Amino acid sequence: MARDPFTTTDERDVIVLALSDPPRGEELAAQLGEYFNHRYRVVRTSTARETRETLGELADASRRTVVLFAEESLPEGPSGLELLRDESLAGVAQGRLLLADEPERALRDLADEEGAAEVVVAPRSPSTSPQEPSDDPFWEQAEKVLYLAAPSGETKADVYGDPKTDVVFRAKRFLRLNHVAVYPKGGTAYEVIPTKKGVQGTKLVNPTLSDLAQALLDYTAHDSKTTYDLAVVGGGPAAMCAAVNARALYGMSTVIVENFAPGGAAATANNTIENYLGFPDGIQPDKLSQEWLKHTAKYEVAWLHTHTATKLAKPAGDGEPYTLTAQKSDKAKTSTTVKAKTVLIACGMQTPQQGGENEATYRYKGVYYDALPADGPDYKGKTVAVIGGGDTAGRAVDIFATSGATKIYLILRGTFADAPMLEDIKKLVKKHKDENKVDMREKTQVAKYEGGTYLEKLTLTSSSTPINVDAAFVLIGGKPNTGWLKDGKLGLYLDAGGYVQTTTITLGKEQAPLATNLPGVFAAGDVRGGATRRIAAAVGDGGTAALSIYQYRKHNR
Predict the structure, then answer these.
(1) Residue 339 gets which letter from DSSP?
(2) CA dihedral of 218, 220, 224, 226, whole degrees rounded to 10
(3) How far apart are alpha carbons 209 and 305 in whole angstroms?
(4) Same domain (yes/no): 144, 11
(5) Which residue of 300, 371, 380, 545 could cross-link 396, Cys pair, CB 3.0 to 4.6 Å?
(6) pLDDT of the residue at 1
(7) Which CATH number does the domain housing residue 235 bear?
């Protein structure tokens, strides 16, 4: 069987799936990917010999965790059962699952077998869809073996509820972007059972994002009684780099105010990042943001999670701090204040609405504003619309096409030839179009979003005949997230596009870039005018801003 080598590019843990029937193996591999949100690489084998060779290669590649799923009978060597009982494989396969036609009989057979204590038994196939896995012993045992294989206990969330509802969608997206393993359980009532570092918590009924953060996330918490040396608004690469530098190099007490998840736009990118220094084989966006997050934790940078900055007030007098007001992201009337001597505005961009009628009605009910690789399997056999002509839109087309979507409408305001999309991505879109997976609609826009409880169809400006869709992904770029800074009393200078204006100020013999017109307030990353919108540039901005803030504080003690 041909398969990719175990390169260092793919850093996921591995499930080795040993099934003698290759088509059945392909089908089950796809189901495992869908259920576990593609957190594991599934490698298929069909013989005992091939399975041993694969496990040997994985041992050489120093994978952290490998789990072997094997059926009872395999050709070319020992049976799957004998492979699972082989203690010499324990150092390679930290978890072992027997796929049995008769699980109860297999459990009896294993009861007195030497070397079988750590073998988990499951039915040979799931009886339910990965999207509606309620009470299916296959998924329960698969979860069990993967949990037991994790070295220190998994942090995960069992999420119950209709996946089409906005609350369930937002909960799953929030948890995934905060690096929590999500297990969708189906059902109708929105509930979450959290497990943090292997310890199961109390069931949460209709939890808010703040409830989920409190139950599952593990950060240094914001202290409302502290006046911080620096408050950073935003959680992207510029923000986290500035916070780490301010804390590690200059000893400043620092808090980050973040409304949803660390990583900013970088964390929701739908491509491997190939050009970030230090990762010659590329790195996945969520993995990179997780490394940044670990860095902030090392230096005990405080976080105010699930809060959106709504107001910045000037100091009441000389020597007094700025006051930042932030509302809970899903409880608009619940706010918190942060006191800080200096402020860094690094809140990036926000995705604008496309502008069609009823768009807001279907937000998170079929209309979405990012598309992650993990979203692909949700739309297998379905029809989606991708609205936009940039790189992100093109990659989204590829995600859905390769995940088995029946049709993808690509809706372009201009022509595909003129779309600002990298040529390599255009070639992928053209390939899918030639395969009749993509229906391109050029020189048009969405005039109206229609449906019942959830989005069902779109009407375009170019035709009065609606097109039926299961979801629409609006991927049309962004605008600076500065609406909250337009208070006339604050007097912060913004340019015509809404970007924060920055300049270089002179402090004695030193120059301090990225300063705004307000003393002690700086800006970095995509939110400032003239910024280069690349991850590496944002990180550079963060480091520069931290140094400028340190210089400012040194001259204004």
Answers:
(1) E
(2) 180
(3) 9
(4) yes
(5) 371
(6) 44
(7) 3.50.50.60
Last residue of a domain, one of 131, 150, 169: 150
**Position 67 in a domain:** yes
304 with 417, same domain?
Answer: no
Domain extent at residue 112: 1-150
Residue 22 sits in the same domain as residue 141: yes
Per-residue pLDDT reduced to its tens digit, 216-273: 988 888 999 999 999 999 999 999 999 999 999 999 999 999 998 888 888 887 777 8
Q: Judge whether residue 89 has pLDDT over 70.
A: no
Q: What is the maximal distance between C-alpha atoms in the chain?
A: 82
Report CA 536 to chain centroid distance, whole Å: 19
Dump pLDDT digits (tens) for 446-486.
999 999 999 999 999 999 999 999 999 999 988 999 999 99
7 plus 135 within the same structural domain: yes
What string of H, E and C letters represents the secondary structure of 241-308?
HHHHHHHHCCCCCEEEECCCCCCHHHHCCCCCECCCCCCCCCECHHHHHHHHHHHHHHCCCEEECCEE
Assess contact for 190 and 171: CB atoms under 8 A. yes
Give 358's strand partners: none
Query: Given a cut of 70, is residue 19 above it in pLDDT?
Result: yes
Total domains, the chain: 4
Rounded-to-integer distance, Cα 526 and Cα 529, Å: 8
The pLDDT confidence band at residue 332, using thresholds 50, 70 and 90, is low
Burial call 353-383: b when 16+ CB within 10 Å, e when fewer = ebebeebeebbbbbbbbbbbbbbbbbbeebb
